[in-house]
Write a structure and sequence with these properties.
Strand 1 and strand 2 form a beta hairpin. It contains ten helices and twelve strands. The strands form two sheets. The chain has a six-stranded mixed β-sheet with strand order 1-2-3-5-4-12, with no helix packed on it. The chain is about 30% helix and about 20% strand. Helix 8 runs parallel beside helix 9. The chain has a domain of about 160 residues: Isochorismatase-like (Rossmann fold). The protein is globular and about 65 Å long.
């Protein structure tokens, strides 16, 4: 799909913007990454500083392993926890056995509590389609929810976007905005607060276009660092993270707060590796919850 006039104008604005580096660092001791929106790497601490000069920082430690660094420093005020597709349709036992998704709930609850304590914004990003979404949706997206074509109309996982679910699963339209199956997974619902932001999506990624509400909100808010959790690691989570990386946001995957049903193929390990070595950073809930302020 060709970029819209809005997208072209935004891209040109970013390209033509003059660099205005305001972060003060001793460049003899720090290695800079980026143009006018820089990270700094300290060889002595082996940490990346993503705080952009903020006086308040959290230190997320990391092992040396595949990450080849000792962690990152982030500014909580400029950070968002993005929780992707933790919805009844994907997680609730009445639809399927998503054991890996269920495993993420306990560590995610701890991470949410840490975010509340540190003043980190929460964002719930979920499938929530409308009739207009179905009308303009690319065929590849609809096919992904209709793989079981040998079964008339499909069942469960492959019922089809917008189609009625079986009666024993509520009979609502699949992942249609406002339905229970598209709502936040029941055990997590009580954790939602009025200060949280919620966005619907109709693609694997919630950031594929700058015209999307979430994309616009992030730009207007000035948030720079995105923490990622949810399901499925190799699908909607990775799709959103990849677009966030391409558009210039910092990306940090909280590994044990992300799960996938294709984990038997090693998908999660591949995603963790690619994020850690290329698109951003990988941590875990225990490390995140133990992060200290400096």
């Amino acid at each position: 799909m060709a970029p819209s006039a809005f997208e072209v104008a935004h891209i040109n604005e970013v390209i033509l913007k003059e660099p205005t580096v305001t972060v003060e660092h001793n460049i003899d001791d720090h290695v800079a990454f980026g143009g006018d929106d820089q990270w700094f790497y300290s060889p002595s601490t082996r940490r990346f500083d993503l705080s952009r000069g903020s006086p308040r920082k959290l230190i997320l430690d990391a092992d040396d392993g595949i990450r080849n660094h000792r962690g990152v420093l982030i500014d909580p005020a400029q950070t968002v926890l993005v929780i992707i597709d933790m919805q009844n349709f994907f997680i609730h036992p009445s639809f399927r056995d998503h054991s890996e998704g269920i495993k993420t709930v306990k560590p995610l609850v701890s991470v949410i509590a840490k975010c509340r304590a540190e003043g980190i914004q929460l964002c719930w990003l979920n499938w929530g389609i409308t009739d207009h979404c179905l009308k303009v949706m690319p065929p590849a997206v609809t096919r992904g929810f209709n793989k079981a074509l040998s079964h008339e109309k499909g069942h469960g996982w492959h019922v089809g976007l917008g189609a009625p679910l079986p009666a024993h699963q509520g009979g609502e339209r699949c992942l249609y905005a406002g339905t229970w199956n598209a709502d936040i997974y029941d055990p997590l619902k009580p954790l939602v607060q009025a200060s949280d932001v919620r966005f619907d999506k109709a693609r694997m990624s919630g950031l594929w276009s700058p015209e999307l509400p979430m994309h616009q909100w992030l730009r207007q808010s000035g948030k720079k660092t995105l923490l990622f959790a949810g399901v499925n690691t190799d699908q909607c989570l990775l799709g959103t993270l990849t677009d966030a990386y391409s558009w210039g946001w910092d990306c940090i995957l909280i590994s044990d707060c992300a799960g996938t049903m294709t984990d038997v193929l090693g998908a999660k390990e591949v995603c963790d590796y690619n994020v850690a070595t290329n698109m951003g950073f990988v941590t875990d809930s225990e490390t995140f919850c133990a992060a200290e302020r400096v």
